[in-house]
Amino acid sequence: MHYYRSANAEVNCCYKYLMFSYNILFWLAGAGFIAIGFWAWSEKGMLSDLTQVTRSQGFDPVWLVLIVGGVSFILGFAGCVGALRENICLLKFFSGLICFILFLELLAAVLAFVFKDSLKEWNYDFFLANIKAYRDDIDLQNVIDSLQRLNFCCGARDPNDWDLNVYFNCTKSNPSRERCGVPFSCCLPDPADNVVNTQCGYDVRETKGDWSTSIYTKGCISALEEWLPRNFYIVAGVFIGISLLQMVGIFLARALMTDIMQSRFYD
Q1: Spatial contact of 15 and 84, defined as CB atoms under 8 Å apart
Q2: Would you put residue 45 in left (φ > 0), alpha (ψ -120 to 50) or beta?
Q3: N or C: at which end does the chain have fewer Cβ atoms within 10 angstroms?
Q4: Confidence at residue 2, expressed as pLDDT on a 0 to 100 scale
């Protein structure tokens, strides 16, 4: 007696190569992020002295780049190789990891809404900790400067938060030329200046008058709280878009696993 294999038992090439194409981008992007992260560390001399990684007092943005790159690389590798080799274990790992990431995203959104007051205090403390380390890491410095320029803010709650930084505090024993000042990113832009004046914040807080004519006086925590409602639909759209992209990956992985198991059953 001869048994004939059903046509439906074949692995769907459409699912297979869609899965591969979907993940090759993540694989390459992950490799690129990892390369950028290690390049940034090499520029700061951290690869020649790894103890600097543990000595850093503020948040190093390179960590975020490396974590995103590492997760993307692992997902892309599992998805690509799992699709091409029709490896069910790798496909299960891929879909399980995406499900876990999606769960963490939803959990973070719920916790942020439920504990928004505690989150606000944590953000405030986190910002202050990074103000202290402002001059210790050039990447952190660039992130804080960008945040202050884009949101027209200075400090966590107000410009006096910069007293926590050893270079900007107003103590008489501070020998820094930036004493009682603020970073240039706190300064109101002058339309007549074509070049950024990096010394515009010097001695601004020396006097107790109205600073609003020369620097931003709003804190960045308040500025971010005002930014979120204004851009709610953009934030929600990005979140929904990322979630849909993850669901597509889960669907492709599950569909391909079903085809592979069916084809093996009929072999």
Answers
A1: no
A2: left
A3: N
A4: 42
